[in-house]
């Protein structure tokens, strides 16, 4: 793998993270991260959709008439999302219930449309696939951080395991934080991640 | 005083540029100006407005808070005394409240000032004094039984995310004290509302005696036993230092006489609350809607918010016309939330935070409107 190709995967983790730098896909990042498990399932779903949509659109890119390209992209994304939704319902039904409309809303996720428009329409299939995987994983890492912090401090557990209770924290007066469960605190946590990222990487700071 | 001055002058070179402890310069500067008025004068720019610097203005606010604080301490003991039939004297009641109140104040100041000094040191600027007021207000607007670790967390949240991320004192758009209270309210609702938090059971423990506030009574039962006079004097259950309208009014007089706080905001908040109360009276139907409108001033944190929180010069509207709009809307929303939304018995906190967010927009509209009006006048003449 050439250095250009590997940067397609690694860039979305740091300098070009879809959530903290491009500020895309915030809505679902706030909605599904109250617990770690749905956050991980959502992250995998989005990664699969972005990667495959990027690949398919990139293969078709020379045959799509420019005037109707958005609708073609939407058809491809919708088909993939329906597939993902069926798979989730078949194998992880309870998580699928928890995620409710947010699986369907992957269709309108700005990251998916953004990558198709910005990358897949003008690049070769292999590059596009890597770019899709990279961006999906960049989205995933933020979701996992959010899900971990919010479940730990909001519900006192990790992946459903009641860690705070097992450690006996409740007996010494510790309590779960109700605010962390609410969406506003998820937004504030995203803000803190952006703050930390920009203070460590000066090139990201606006003049 | 002379000796202190000499001492400070003697150790000053150590902390100045090039000195051994120059990395602690901001901390030293903070303590020096805490003790003595700085003799430096702003030499350029057009922002020189007053002979007193912000440190002296802030001490005036603290003096204005003292009546409410002292009354609140006594009232903490008084409420426990009534609830337990303990037959305590006046001084023991005060002592009880003092012992309960002191840890809250100490935690608030230690955590808050610790963070402020750290940030000042990292960013190499002087320590701003804004937190001296916020740090005193935060323990005054929470229930007496608030666990200290929760208070510390709320203070850290308010100072870092309510203030320092925006650049420190003077740059925040939300009132830090209310951010701390909102954090507590949404994080640990069982410690911030209901009827099991307002009265301390003993001097050292964290247990509470069941006893509801008049505001809670109105929201749940539609009636309250407390008389208007009790509520005016403040001998009722409630957050530590917000119960006495009388003590708060003494503070208001101090703030208004010294010109520190805006009379426009105070008056318009009171007018807005009264208007909404009268409107609800006119609609009528339920006991809460029929409640005399001036009860809203006497219950909960309405007056404390109007006098000490809405008038915060950093987060309030700046234009005179904007101050009227800002204040009126605070009063209106506070009473609206109280009466209409049963989930939030006290609307003052959320109402002030909401209008804090809108204050810049209000100012912008007032200024834009002013420019437009003057432009029109100019065109007519030409």
Can you offer a commentary on this structure?
The complex is a heterodimer of chains A (207) and B (382). Chain A has helices at 3-10, 26-31, 36-60, 69-91, 93-99, 101-104, 110-118, 125-155, 163-166, 178-181, 183-200. Chain A has 207 residues and is mainly α. In chain B, 65% of the residues lie in helices and 1% in strands. Chain B has 17 helices and two strands.
Quick summary:
Chain A is mainly α and 207 residues long. Chain A is built from eleven helices and no strands.
The main pleated sheet of chain A reads as: none
Q: How are the strands of the largest sheet of chain B arranged?
A: 1-2
Order of helices and strands of chain A: HHHHHHHHHHH
Quaternary state, please? heterodimer
C-alpha-based Rg of chain B, rounded:
22 Å
Task: Output the helix-strand order of chain B.
Answer: HHHHHHHHEEHHHHHHHHH
In total, how many beta strands of chain A? Answer: 0
- What is the overall number of helices of chain B? 17
What characteristic shape of chain A results from the CA principal axes? globular
Which structural category do the helix and sheet elements of chain B fall into? mainly alpha
Residue share in β-strands of chain B: under 5%
Biggest interface, residues from each chain? A-B, 11 and 11 residues
Q: How many angstroms does the end-to-end distance of chain B come to?
A: 64 Å
Helix coverage percent of chain A: 55-70%
Radius of gyration of chain A: 18 Å
Topology:
The complex is a heterodimer of chains A (207) and B (382).
Chain A: H1 3-10, H2 26-31, H3 36-60, H4 69-91, H5 93-99, H6 101-104, H7 110-118, H8 125-155, H9 163-166, H10 178-181, H11 183-200
Helix pairs in contact in A: 1-8, 3-4, 3-5, 3-7, 3-8, 4-5, 4-7
Chain B: H1 2-15, H2 25-35, H3 54-84, H4 90-123, H5 131-140, H6 148-162, H7 176-187, H8 189-192, E1 199-200, E2 208-209, H9 214-221, H10 228-233, H11 245-257, H12 263-283, H13 287-290, H14 295-298, H15 302-309, H16 320-340, H17 348-381
Antiparallel strand pairs in B: 1-2
């Amino acid at each position: 793998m050439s250095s250009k190709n590997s940067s397609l995967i690694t860039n979305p983790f740091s300098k070009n993270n879809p959530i903290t730098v491009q500020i895309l896909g915030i809505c679902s990042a706030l909605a599904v991260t109250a617990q770690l498990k749905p956050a991980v399932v959502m992250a995998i779903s989005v990664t699969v959709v972005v990667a495959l949509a990027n690949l398919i659109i990139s293969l078709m890119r020379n045959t799509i008439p420019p005037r109707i390209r958005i609708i073609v992209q939407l058809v491809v994304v919708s088909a993939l999302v329906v597939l993902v939704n069926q798979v989730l319902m078949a194998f992880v039904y309870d998580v699928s219930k928890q995620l409710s409309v947010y699986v369907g809303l992957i269709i309108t996720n700005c990251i998916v449309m953004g990558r198709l428009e910005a990358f897949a329409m003008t690049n070769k299939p292999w590059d596009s696939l890597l770019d899709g995987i990279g961006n999906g994983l960049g989205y995933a890492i933020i979701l996992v951080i959010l899900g971990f912090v919010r479940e730990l401090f909001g519900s006192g557990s990790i992946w459903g395991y009641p860690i705070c209770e097992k450690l006996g924290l409740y007996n010494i007066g510790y309590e779960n934080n109700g605010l962390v469960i609410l969406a506003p605190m998820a937004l504030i946590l995203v803000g803190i991640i952006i703050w930390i990222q920009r203070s460590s990487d000066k090139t990201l700071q606006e003049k | 005083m002379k000796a202190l001055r000499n001492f400070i002058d003697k150790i000053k070179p150590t902390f100045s540029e090039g000195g051994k402890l120059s990395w602690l310069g901001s901390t030293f500067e903070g303590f020096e100006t805490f003790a003595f008025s700085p003799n430096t004068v702003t030499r350029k720019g057009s922002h020189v407005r007053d002979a007193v610097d912000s440190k002296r203005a802030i001490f005036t606010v603290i003096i204005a808070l003292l009546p409410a604080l002292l009354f609140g301490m006594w009232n903490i003991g008084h409420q426990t005394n009534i609830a337990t039939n303990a037959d305590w004297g006046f001084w023991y009641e005060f002592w009880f409240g003092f012992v309960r109140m002191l840890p809250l104040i100490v935690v608030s100041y230690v955590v808050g000032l610790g963070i402020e000094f750290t940030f000042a040191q990292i960013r190499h600027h002087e320590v701003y004094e804004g937190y001296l007021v916020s740090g005193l207000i935060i323990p005054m607007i929470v229930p007496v039984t608030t666990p200290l670790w929760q208070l510390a967390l709320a203070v850290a949240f308010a100072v870092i995310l309510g203030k320092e991320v925006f650049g420190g004192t003077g740059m925040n758009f939300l009132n830090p004290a209310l951010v701390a209270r909102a954090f507590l309210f949404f994080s640990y609702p069982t410690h911030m509302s209901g009827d099991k938090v307002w009265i301390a059971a003993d001097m050292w423990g964290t247990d509470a005696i069941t006893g509801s506030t008049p505001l809670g009574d109105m929201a749940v039962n539609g009636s309250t036993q407390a008389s208007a006079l009790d509520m005016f004097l403040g001998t009722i259950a409630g957050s530590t230092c917000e119960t006495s309208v009388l003590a708060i009014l003494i503070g208001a007089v101090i703030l208004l006489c010294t010109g520190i706080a805006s009379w426009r905001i105070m008056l318009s908040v009171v007018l807005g609350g009264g208007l909404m109360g009268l409107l609800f009276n006119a609609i009528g139907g339920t006991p809460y809607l029929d409640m005399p409108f001036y009860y809203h001033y006497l219950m909960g944190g309405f007056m404390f918010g109007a006098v000490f929180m809405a008038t915060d010069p950093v987060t309030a509207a700046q234009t005179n016309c904007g101050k009227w709009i800002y204040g009126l809307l605070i009063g209106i929303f506070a009473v609206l939330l109280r009466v209409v939304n049963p989930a939030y018995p006290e609307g003052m906190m959320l109402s002030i935070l909401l209008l804090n967010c809108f204050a810049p927009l209000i100012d912008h509209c007032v200024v834009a409107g002013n420019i437009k009006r003057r432009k029109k006048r100019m065109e007519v003449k030409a």
